[in-house]
């Protein structure tokens, strides 16, 4: 596989390919052409070919791509063939919703621990994981090979927890707090703001109601 720098836009499209390919696989489809995939996903076939060419094209031969192979390869590119242990900090509504979501395990993300500063929540069970007090965080992260911390706490709390996480070996932060985090080089942060997606929807509703396409 080539190791040239791939644009984040391309990387950002890979999970959607993976979802469609996963569905095709489940339906027993063995091969698919870029044209068929294009019709299914409503993106141009040339976009698909261009995206896949970043990774050597995935060996499209004769009639289309081998669905299983493509699914595995895209999964590998996304690092989904590796296991990642994660913890969630903040056992409120959002933290619990994420903790309860089973599909992360399917993708290799293993839910290991959950923390909250509220003593009333400590000991509560979220999918077999007991909420722990913040005092146990550092030791737990060090001892359990945790690489990802999910932050579902208010923004000030998120800012304050970063150094503790990094000092104890966290490599990546999946940040739901509405704040940009300052992290040392080499530490990855992926911000998620659900409302961004909603605002995009709002923009498109506006456009549509003005008769534009
Ligand atoms: P929530 O109030 O239900 O839960 C927050 C939890 O964080 C509480 O259990 C609280 O005790 C805990 N907490 C606060 N400070 C802490 C600290 N320093 N250490 C450990 N635990 C601490 O709130 P909800 O609805 O779960 O939202 C959590 C955060 O995520 C909020 O700041 C909210 O603004 C944000 N949010 C972000 C979204 C996004 O799309 N990025 C969507 C929804 C919420």
Task: Describe this entry's structure for a reader.
Helix content is 44%, strand content 17%. By secondary structure, the chain is an alpha/beta fold. The strands form two sheets. It has a seven-stranded mixed beta sheet, sandwiched between helices. Strands 1-2 form a two-stranded antiparallel ribbon. Strand 7 (148-151), helix 8 (155-167) and strand 8 (172-175) form a beta-alpha-beta unit. The structure holds 1,4-dihydronicotinamide adenine dinucleotide.
Order of helices and strands: HEHHEHEHHEEEHEHEEH
Quaternary organization: single chain
Measured distance between first and last alpha carbons: 39 Å
What is the CA-based Rg, rounded? 20 Å
- Total of DSSP H or I helical runs spanning 4+ residues: 9
Helix content: 40-55%
Q: Which class best fits the helix and strand makeup?
A: alpha/beta
Bound molecules: 1,4-dihydronicotinamide adenine dinucleotide
The major sheet is characterized as: 7 strands, mixed
Keywords:
213 residues, alpha/beta, 7-stranded mixed sheet, two-stranded antiparallel ribbon, 9 strands, 44% helix, globular, binds 1,4-dihydronicotinamide adenine dinucleotide
